[in-house]
């Protein structure tokens, strides 16, 4: 049986959602719309004519890195190499030296065979805390995109300007900026999908700034909340747990190719696991 890879467009979003549901994932409409607008969605159409046999998404960040996500195979087409087929296609065509992803326990052995190596971990927290504004941050506007993109580039090691612009102007619930005497100290954004507000991305010069930014997002957006924190951010993890967030699960962050020249100590919240 021959399987061919196609590039899907946003009109086919329901095919991706149906396949996600086939593996007991939620439909996450807003996240899929952002994935389609910021990345390239690849699909393998099912030979039996019933939707997709497999899918994967590549979100490119400039000429430096590609985030790979949503690597899913339909239950009835398992163990036919479709995940590996899609992964090899993305690695061969993405046009960046480095690729990043967060791995499920099921997918990690495949990624390791392809040369990915773990370089940290992220824990996902959920909660519905209440917070008052700190007065230490201000609401961001589209005019702040240059500042936000520059802070993010230094922290992440690759340009995510396009997706940050989508969140700031179309998808997000709001961004906050913290400023000091010499300029911006950090930013944080929030966006909503699947009935939950994800508090991220967040970049800051240190834990105190990050906590102020996230606190002000909680004060100005509806709950419940999801917060994805690197395990190296022990001070913010302790603060989140004290505020009432509960850890739900953790995943390794994996990288293929040259290591990103990032500053992980400044990363305090992901855009979402799907975006690296």
From TrEMBL:
Domain (N-acetyltransferase) ranges: 3-139
Signal sequence extent: none
Domain of life of the source: Bacteria
Protein's name in the database: GNAT family N-acetyltransferase
Transmembrane segments annotated in the record for this chain: none
């Amino acid at each position: 049986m021959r399987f061919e890879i196609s590039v899907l467009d946003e009109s086919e979003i329901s095919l991706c959602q149906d396949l996600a549901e086939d593996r007991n994932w939620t439909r996450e409409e807003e996240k899929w719309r952002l994935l389609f607008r910021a990345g390239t969605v690849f699909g393998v159409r099912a030979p039996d004519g019933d939707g997709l046999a497999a899918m994967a998404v590549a979100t490119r960040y400039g000429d430096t890195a590609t985030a790979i996500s949503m690597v899913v195979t339909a239950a009835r087409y398992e163990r036919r190499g479709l995940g590996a087929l899609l992964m090899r296609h993305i690695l061969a065509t993405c046009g960046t030296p480095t690729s990043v992803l967060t791995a499920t326990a099921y997918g990690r052995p495949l990624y390791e065979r392809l040369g990915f190596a773990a370089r940290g971990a992220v824990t996902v927290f959920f909660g519905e805390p209440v917070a008052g504004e700190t007065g230490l941050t201000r609401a961001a506007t589209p005019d702040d995109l240059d500042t936000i993109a520059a802070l993010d580039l230094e922290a992440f090691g690759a340009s995510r300007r396009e997706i940050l612009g989508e969140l700031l102007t179309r998808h997000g619930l709001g961004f906050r900026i913290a400023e000091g005497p010499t300029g911006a100290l950090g930013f944080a954004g929030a966006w909503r999908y699947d009935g939950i507000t994800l508090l991220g991305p967040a970049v800051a010069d240190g834990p105190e700034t990050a906590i102020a930014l996230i606190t002000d997002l909680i004060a100005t957006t509806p709950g419940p909340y999801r917060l994805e924190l690197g395990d190296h951010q022990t001070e913010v993890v302790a603060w989140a747990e004290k505020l009432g967030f509960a850890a739900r699960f953790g995943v390794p962050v994996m990288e293929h190719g040259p290591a990103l020249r990032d500053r992980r100590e400044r990363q305090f919240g992901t855009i979402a696991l799907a975006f690296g």
